[in-house]
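Let's study a protein:

___
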Amino acid sequence: MIGRLGPPADAISYCRVGEIPGLELYRGVGVTRHVPRHVHGVFSLSVAEAGVRISESRRQKYCITPGSIFVSEWGEAHAGEIPFGTSYSSRSLRISRELFSALLAELPGREGSEAHFSVPLLQDDELYGKILRLHGLAASPESQLAKECLLREVFSLLVNRHSRRRDAWPPTGDETGAVRRVCEYLGDCCHENVPIATLAAIAGFSPFHLCRVFERTVGVPPHVYQLDIRLAKAADLLAHGGKIVTVAMETGFCDQSHFHKAFKKKFGVTPRQYIR
Protein backbone atom coordinates (compact mmCIF):
# COMPACT_ATOMS: atom_id res chain seq x y z
CA MET A 1 0.00 0.00 0.00
CA ILE A 2 1.22 3.53 -0.82
CA GLY A 3 0.64 6.27 1.74
CA ARG A 4 -1.67 6.34 4.73
CA LEU A 5 -4.86 8.04 5.80
CA GLY A 6 -5.98 9.67 9.04
CA PRO A 7 -5.85 13.45 8.49
CA PRO A 8 -6.50 16.06 11.15
CA ALA A 9 -9.48 18.39 10.86
CA ASP A 10 -9.56 20.76 7.87
CA ALA A 11 -7.39 18.40 5.86
CA ILE A 12 -7.38 16.55 2.56
CA SER A 13 -5.41 13.38 1.93
CA TYR A 14 -4.91 10.85 -0.84
CA CYS A 15 -3.74 7.25 -0.66
CA ARG A 16 -2.95 4.91 -3.54
CA VAL A 17 -3.65 1.24 -2.89
CA GLY A 18 -0.55 -0.62 -4.01
CA GLU A 19 -2.28 -4.01 -4.14
CA ILE A 20 -4.96 -2.70 -6.51
CA PRO A 21 -3.47 -0.55 -9.31
CA GLY A 22 -5.92 2.10 -10.39
CA LEU A 23 -7.58 2.53 -6.99
CA GLU A 24 -6.96 5.68 -4.96
CA LEU A 25 -8.57 6.74 -1.70
CA TYR A 26 -9.52 10.33 -0.92
CA ARG A 27 -10.55 11.75 2.42
CA GLY A 28 -11.57 15.29 3.28
CA VAL A 29 -12.29 16.42 6.85
CA GLY A 30 -13.85 19.80 7.59
CA VAL A 31 -13.35 20.99 4.02
CA THR A 32 -14.55 24.51 3.20
CA ARG A 33 -12.95 25.24 -0.17
CA HIS A 34 -14.83 25.91 -3.39
CA VAL A 35 -13.90 23.67 -6.34
CA PRO A 36 -14.24 25.38 -9.73
CA ARG A 37 -15.73 23.59 -12.73
CA HIS A 38 -13.48 20.76 -13.85
CA VAL A 39 -13.48 17.30 -15.43
CA HIS A 40 -12.40 14.15 -13.63
CA GLY A 41 -9.86 11.83 -15.22
CA VAL A 42 -11.09 9.07 -12.90
CA PHE A 43 -14.41 7.65 -11.75
CA SER A 44 -15.17 8.94 -8.25
CA LEU A 45 -17.54 7.31 -5.78
CA SER A 46 -18.00 9.51 -2.71
CA VAL A 47 -19.82 9.08 0.58
CA ALA A 48 -20.79 12.10 2.69
CA GLU A 49 -19.97 11.82 6.40
CA ALA A 50 -20.72 15.29 7.77
CA GLY A 51 -21.85 18.73 6.62
CA VAL A 52 -23.31 19.77 3.28
CA ARG A 53 -21.84 20.17 -0.20
CA ILE A 54 -23.52 21.57 -3.30
CA SER A 55 -22.37 19.90 -6.51
CA GLU A 56 -23.32 21.53 -9.80
CA SER A 57 -23.15 19.69 -13.12
CA ARG A 58 -24.57 20.48 -16.53
CA ARG A 59 -27.71 18.61 -15.50
CA GLN A 60 -28.58 20.41 -12.26
CA LYS A 61 -27.47 21.17 -8.70
CA TYR A 62 -27.34 18.43 -6.06
CA CYS A 63 -27.27 18.85 -2.30
CA ILE A 64 -25.03 16.15 -0.79
CA THR A 65 -25.76 15.38 2.86
CA PRO A 66 -24.54 12.70 5.32
CA GLY A 67 -25.60 9.20 4.34
CA SER A 68 -25.74 9.93 0.60
CA ILE A 69 -23.48 8.71 -2.20
CA PHE A 70 -22.33 10.86 -5.10
CA VAL A 71 -21.06 9.51 -8.41
CA SER A 72 -18.69 11.55 -10.59
CA GLU A 73 -18.05 9.97 -13.97
CA TRP A 74 -14.92 10.73 -15.97
CA GLY A 75 -15.58 13.42 -18.50
CA GLU A 76 -18.47 14.80 -16.44
CA ALA A 77 -17.89 18.50 -15.78
CA HIS A 78 -18.93 19.69 -12.35
CA ALA A 79 -18.14 22.18 -9.60
CA GLY A 80 -18.42 21.96 -5.82
CA GLU A 81 -19.34 24.52 -3.18
CA ILE A 82 -19.65 24.42 0.61
CA PRO A 83 -22.35 26.74 2.02
CA PHE A 84 -20.88 29.72 3.87
CA GLY A 85 -20.11 29.06 7.53
CA THR A 86 -20.19 25.26 7.16
CA SER A 87 -17.75 22.49 6.28
CA TYR A 88 -17.95 19.11 4.62
CA SER A 89 -16.36 15.72 5.33
CA SER A 90 -16.33 12.80 2.91
CA ARG A 91 -14.49 9.73 1.69
CA SER A 92 -14.08 8.73 -1.95
CA LEU A 93 -12.97 5.77 -4.01
CA ARG A 94 -11.23 7.08 -7.13
CA ILE A 95 -11.12 4.39 -9.83
CA SER A 96 -9.06 4.69 -13.00
CA ARG A 97 -10.74 4.12 -16.34
CA GLU A 98 -8.66 0.99 -16.89
CA LEU A 99 -9.68 -0.56 -13.56
CA PHE A 100 -13.33 0.43 -14.05
CA SER A 101 -13.41 -1.18 -17.51
CA ALA A 102 -11.77 -4.35 -16.18
CA LEU A 103 -14.29 -4.64 -13.35
CA LEU A 104 -17.20 -3.96 -15.70
CA ALA A 105 -16.00 -6.68 -18.09
CA GLU A 106 -16.21 -9.19 -15.22
CA LEU A 107 -19.95 -8.58 -14.81
CA PRO A 108 -22.14 -10.88 -16.95
CA GLY A 109 -23.51 -9.17 -20.04
CA ARG A 110 -21.57 -5.91 -19.59
CA GLU A 111 -18.64 -6.61 -21.92
CA GLY A 112 -17.97 -3.86 -24.48
CA SER A 113 -20.20 -1.31 -22.77
CA GLU A 114 -19.96 1.47 -20.21
CA ALA A 115 -22.07 2.09 -17.15
CA HIS A 116 -23.90 5.41 -17.15
CA PHE A 117 -25.44 6.97 -14.05
CA SER A 118 -28.33 9.21 -15.06
CA VAL A 119 -28.83 10.22 -11.40
CA PRO A 120 -25.47 10.88 -9.67
CA LEU A 121 -26.90 11.32 -6.16
CA LEU A 122 -27.73 7.92 -4.66
CA GLN A 123 -29.45 6.76 -1.49
CA ASP A 124 -28.47 3.16 -0.73
CA ASP A 125 -27.65 2.23 2.88
CA GLU A 126 -26.09 -1.12 2.01
CA LEU A 127 -23.83 0.35 -0.67
CA TYR A 128 -22.93 3.29 1.60
CA GLY A 129 -21.81 0.93 4.34
CA LYS A 130 -19.73 -1.20 1.99
CA ILE A 131 -17.98 1.85 0.51
CA LEU A 132 -17.02 3.03 3.99
CA ARG A 133 -15.81 -0.44 4.89
CA LEU A 134 -13.75 -0.72 1.70
CA HIS A 135 -12.25 2.72 2.26
CA GLY A 136 -11.01 1.68 5.70
CA LEU A 137 -9.97 -1.80 4.64
CA ALA A 138 -7.99 -0.66 1.60
CA ALA A 139 -5.89 1.67 3.76
CA SER A 140 -5.11 -1.10 6.27
CA PRO A 141 -2.63 -4.01 6.27
CA GLU A 142 -5.52 -6.42 5.57
CA SER A 143 -4.96 -9.07 2.91
CA GLN A 144 -5.07 -8.22 -0.78
CA LEU A 145 -7.74 -10.86 -1.30
CA ALA A 146 -10.08 -9.21 1.21
CA LYS A 147 -9.65 -5.83 -0.50
CA GLU A 148 -10.22 -7.22 -3.98
CA CYS A 149 -13.32 -9.16 -2.95
CA LEU A 150 -14.91 -6.18 -1.20
CA LEU A 151 -14.13 -3.93 -4.17
CA ARG A 152 -16.10 -6.29 -6.39
CA GLU A 153 -19.01 -6.33 -3.93
CA VAL A 154 -19.13 -2.54 -4.03
CA PHE A 155 -18.82 -2.40 -7.81
CA SER A 156 -21.49 -5.02 -8.41
CA LEU A 157 -24.00 -3.27 -6.15
CA LEU A 158 -23.26 0.09 -7.73
CA VAL A 159 -23.57 -1.00 -11.35
CA ASN A 160 -26.41 -3.50 -11.04
CA ARG A 161 -28.61 -1.25 -8.90
CA HIS A 162 -27.89 2.23 -10.15
CA SER A 163 -26.50 2.29 -13.70
CA ARG A 164 -27.78 1.72 -17.17
CA ARG A 165 -25.89 0.34 -20.13
CA ARG A 166 -24.66 2.53 -22.97
CA ASP A 167 -22.17 2.33 -25.83
CA ALA A 168 -18.81 3.86 -25.05
CA TRP A 169 -19.07 6.60 -27.69
CA PRO A 170 -21.56 7.56 -30.42
CA PRO A 171 -20.42 7.11 -34.07
CA THR A 172 -17.38 9.17 -34.98
CA GLY A 173 -19.07 11.01 -37.86
CA ASP A 174 -21.04 13.42 -35.68
CA GLU A 175 -20.00 16.30 -33.42
CA THR A 176 -19.53 14.02 -30.42
CA GLY A 177 -17.16 11.87 -32.46
CA ALA A 178 -15.16 14.96 -33.42
CA VAL A 179 -14.91 16.01 -29.78
CA ARG A 180 -13.82 12.49 -28.89
CA ARG A 181 -10.91 12.74 -31.33
CA VAL A 182 -9.88 16.06 -29.81
CA CYS A 183 -10.08 14.65 -26.27
CA GLU A 184 -7.95 11.67 -27.27
CA TYR A 185 -5.38 13.96 -28.86
CA LEU A 186 -5.20 16.17 -25.77
CA GLY A 187 -4.80 13.05 -23.63
CA ASP A 188 -1.91 11.80 -25.76
CA CYS A 189 -0.22 15.20 -26.06
CA CYS A 190 -1.21 16.88 -22.80
CA HIS A 191 2.34 18.19 -22.28
CA GLU A 192 2.36 20.12 -25.56
CA ASN A 193 1.40 23.76 -26.05
CA VAL A 194 -1.32 22.91 -28.58
CA PRO A 195 -2.79 25.71 -30.75
CA ILE A 196 -6.54 25.80 -31.36
CA ALA A 197 -5.89 25.47 -35.12
CA THR A 198 -4.47 21.98 -34.58
CA LEU A 199 -7.50 20.86 -32.59
CA ALA A 200 -9.87 22.40 -35.14
CA ALA A 201 -8.14 20.48 -37.93
CA ILE A 202 -8.48 17.22 -35.99
CA ALA A 203 -12.20 17.88 -35.47
CA GLY A 204 -12.81 19.18 -38.98
CA PHE A 205 -14.39 22.37 -37.62
CA SER A 206 -13.50 26.01 -37.54
CA PRO A 207 -11.76 27.06 -34.29
CA PHE A 208 -14.84 29.02 -33.21
CA HIS A 209 -17.20 26.11 -33.86
CA LEU A 210 -14.87 23.66 -32.11
CA CYS A 211 -14.76 25.80 -28.93
CA ARG A 212 -18.54 26.03 -28.90
CA VAL A 213 -19.16 22.32 -29.59
CA PHE A 214 -16.43 21.15 -27.21
CA GLU A 215 -17.77 23.09 -24.24
CA ARG A 216 -21.35 22.06 -25.01
CA THR A 217 -20.33 18.37 -25.18
CA VAL A 218 -17.72 18.13 -22.43
CA GLY A 219 -18.88 20.91 -20.13
CA VAL A 220 -15.61 22.84 -20.02
CA PRO A 221 -13.50 24.61 -22.71
CA PRO A 222 -10.57 22.75 -24.33
CA HIS A 223 -7.93 24.55 -22.23
CA VAL A 224 -9.63 23.54 -18.95
CA TYR A 225 -9.90 19.95 -20.16
CA GLN A 226 -6.20 19.95 -21.06
CA LEU A 227 -5.27 21.31 -17.63
CA ASP A 228 -7.28 18.59 -15.88
CA ILE A 229 -5.54 15.93 -18.00
CA ARG A 230 -2.14 17.41 -17.17
CA LEU A 231 -2.85 17.45 -13.44
CA ALA A 232 -4.18 13.89 -13.43
CA LYS A 233 -1.00 12.71 -15.17
CA ALA A 234 1.12 14.76 -12.76
CA ALA A 235 -0.56 13.13 -9.75
CA ASP A 236 0.17 9.70 -11.22
CA LEU A 237 3.82 10.54 -11.84
CA LEU A 238 4.24 11.94 -8.32
CA ALA A 239 2.67 8.83 -6.81
CA HIS A 240 5.22 6.71 -8.65
CA GLY A 241 8.27 8.58 -7.40
CA GLY A 242 8.56 11.48 -9.83
CA LYS A 243 10.36 14.61 -8.64
CA ILE A 244 8.20 17.72 -8.53
CA VAL A 245 10.31 19.86 -10.87
CA THR A 246 10.61 17.01 -13.39
CA VAL A 247 6.90 16.23 -13.27
CA ALA A 248 6.05 19.90 -13.81
CA MET A 249 8.16 19.96 -16.97
CA GLU A 250 6.91 16.59 -18.26
CA THR A 251 3.28 17.66 -17.97
CA GLY A 252 3.65 20.95 -19.80
CA PHE A 253 3.79 23.55 -17.02
CA CYS A 254 5.92 26.59 -17.73
CA ASP A 255 7.44 26.65 -14.24
CA GLN A 256 7.22 24.99 -10.84
CA SER A 257 5.25 27.88 -9.30
CA HIS A 258 2.50 27.59 -11.93
CA PHE A 259 2.38 23.83 -11.37
CA HIS A 260 2.18 24.25 -7.59
CA LYS A 261 -0.76 26.69 -7.79
CA ALA A 262 -2.71 24.65 -10.33
CA PHE A 263 -2.17 21.39 -8.44
CA LYS A 264 -3.33 22.80 -5.11
CA LYS A 265 -6.36 24.45 -6.69
CA LYS A 266 -7.52 21.11 -8.13
CA PHE A 267 -6.56 18.63 -5.40
CA GLY A 268 -6.62 20.81 -2.28
CA VAL A 269 -3.03 19.89 -1.38
CA THR A 270 0.39 20.89 -2.71
CA PRO A 271 2.44 18.44 -4.79
CA ARG A 272 4.75 17.87 -1.81
CA GLN A 273 1.80 17.16 0.52
CA TYR A 274 0.38 14.77 -2.08
CA ILE A 275 3.64 12.83 -2.15
CA ARG A 276 3.66 12.56 1.64
Observations:
- Residues 175-275 form a domain with the Arc Repressor Mutant, subunit A fold (CATH 1.10.10.60).
- Confidence is low (pLDDT under 50) at residues 1-9, 167-173.
- The first helix runs from residue 97 to 106.
